[in-house]
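step 4 of 6: structure.
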Amino acid sequence: MKQPELAVHELAPRMQQWRRDFHHFAESGWLEFRTATHVAETLHQLGYQLALGRDVVDDAARMGLPSAEVLAREEQRALEQGALPQWIEHFSGGFTGIVATLETGRPGPTIAFRVDMDALDLGEMQQPSHRPFAEGFASCNAGMMHACGHDGHTAIGLGLATVLQQFSDQLNGTIKLIFQPAEEGTRGARAMVAAGALDNIDYFTAIHIGTGIPSGTVVCGSDNFMATTKFDVQFTGVAAHAGGKPEEGRNALLAAAQTALALHSIAPHSAGASRVNVGVLQAGSGRNVVPAQALLKVETRGETNVINDYVFERAQEIIRGIATMYGIEAEVKLMGAATNSEPSPEWVAFIRQQADEVSGVTQVVDTVKGATGSEDATLMMARVQEQGGKASYMVFGTHLSAGHHNEKFDFDEKVMEVAVNTMARLALNFPWQRGV
Ligand SMILES: O=C(O)C[C@H](NC(=O)Cc1c[nH]c2ccccc12)C(=O)O
């Protein structure tokens, strides 16, 4: 049994530096320009072969992409904040994905690990009671915050890269480390799958920290992600004089408001849990003008793909019906998608066995009850499994200062050691002769 503990413990200060640097320069989905250049440079220095940008992110399959104007402005911002110019061209235009490969030259399967790099669209709390602010690493980018732990995931990915490189003479086969953009809004994974980045992988593991799991607990085969569809609805009506000729107007604001209420009253499904959220409603232009424009940002979720599809289809009928009722146009644009997940039992069993040996781990479970959030790593898992590979999703419990997606979110950085130790063991102790 090979034990990476000592090497990982020595790496802890580097991982903390990486994590705090990524936290400080938080970048939302498809805008991870600074982050991606530093990840690429570190992996390159370690001797990994890199596939970057358009080679691992399919242009047409990207969902929920910011406008060209925002992409250009944020790339400039990243350069001013220390993005490395020698790598930036690969990621320019929002192609912020990386696949790093370590070929051992010895026969054996391909084992892949996936982490995500994006921050959330949320402003970070700037108060001394919030540790990242008190210790000087709170986000310096307005409206962008690592409030879901992906700064930790990226640091874990680099920590794992370092340890596996150190132990490379004890590995067989091929190791792939996948750094994904735009997990929030479940937008990025589909583009990496479409680019073929998940092809020919035998064993795949994606990870998350936190999610309400207590410190010391490791979940080896999360099977409770909700299938989800993210979409925008653009309503276009007719502007008119609200006092003089209201009958000539077609009111997009009222259509959007009716739609928001109706979406939240879709009947539940007898087969399991579902969700609807209208997260944004923007409408109108002036007090005395019949509003001609309205935008809704919506997500549906379901415990299974069937339940999510049911809610999504009902939502489309509601949108069409209300648009007809108000005599306006409604354009629906798909912004993100993910499925539910079915981890491969043999791979989960092997993960459980390895996690059990990691110091600091007090409880190892296969899964936890109850539907929670969504994850587009499920699309990657499905791709690997379609091709005959095995896939799982792990969660490493840690103490949180506030819930995910909250402006006071922070986590206990010790979890990064637990994660790297567990993941490194999956490769180091893999039964190369027989597989799992
Ligand atoms: O749908 C998304 O946009 C992805 C996003 N994903 C996460 O937040 C990760 C996540 C999955 N499950 C949990 C449970 C608790 C916190 C965070 C998570 C979500 O569910 O809103």
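step 5 of 6: annotate
 - The first strand starts at residue 49 and ends at 52.
 - The chain has twelve helices and twelve strands.
step 6 of 6: archive
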